[in-house]
Hints:
- This protein is of the alpha+beta class.
- The chain has 3 domains: 1-31, no CATH class; 35-127, Rossmann fold (3-Layer(aba) Sandwich), CATH 3.40.50.150; 128-187.
- Helices cover 47% and strands 23% of the residues.
- A 4-stranded mixed β-sheet has the order 1-2-4-3.
- Helix 3 runs antiparallel to helix 4 (129-153), helix 4 (129-153) packs antiparallel against helix 5 and helix 4 packs parallel to helix 6.
- The termini are far apart.
Amino acid sequence: xxxxxxxxxxxxxxxxxxxxxxxxxxxxxxxxxxxxxxxxxxxxxxxxxxxxxxxxxxxxxxxxxxxxxxxxxxxxxxxxxxxxxxxxxxxxxxxxxxxxxxxxxxxxxxxxxxxxxxxxxxxxxxxxxxxxxxxxxxxxxxxxxxxxxxxxxxxxxxxxxxxxxxxxxxxxxxxxxxxxxxxxxxx
Length: 187
Ligand SMILES: C[S@@+](CC[C@H](N)C(=O)[O-])C[C@H]1O[C@@H](n2cnc3c(N)ncnc32)[C@H](O)[C@@H]1O
């Protein structure tokens, strides 16, 4: 599906819902942003892949009203990548207001993206990303444990065990992984 098709679908959806105050355009964020000042700017899995990220963040800072918010959900999977993104945004005048790892299941695979809220400012929130990442891992290990139990109950014991073993192998130091290990031993 090309960009033209996406815009066409977006316009159709808008019409179906009687939304007539939205304009959809295709533009290269590495070149320029649409003219104007915005109360809210969002990025979904895009700032994580563009080249010259700082240039784009500077442009976002410039297009955001002084009280506006920049919400960004990005496909970073480590604390380090998220920390580097926060550094880049801070260098461009965007101060971190809140941060969460958002776990979700994509086509059966456990993933987690990073969700950032930025506003104009010099000094943002300081977050312990490593601690957040550990929390996330525990959550994921716990959700995989549930999945393994479900698979085992549904007689798909081999795949359930494999899945659980992968989680235990990757996240051996967490409480949830230890619980998973005990569960495996008891089978
Ligand atoms: C991983 S997809 C995410 C798509 C969608 N935003 C979502 O969350 O499902 C990355 C998107 O970034 C867009 N993209 C990459 N570089 C871009 C650029 N320089 N300017 C505008 N969009 C860009 C791609 O066209 C693609 O749609």
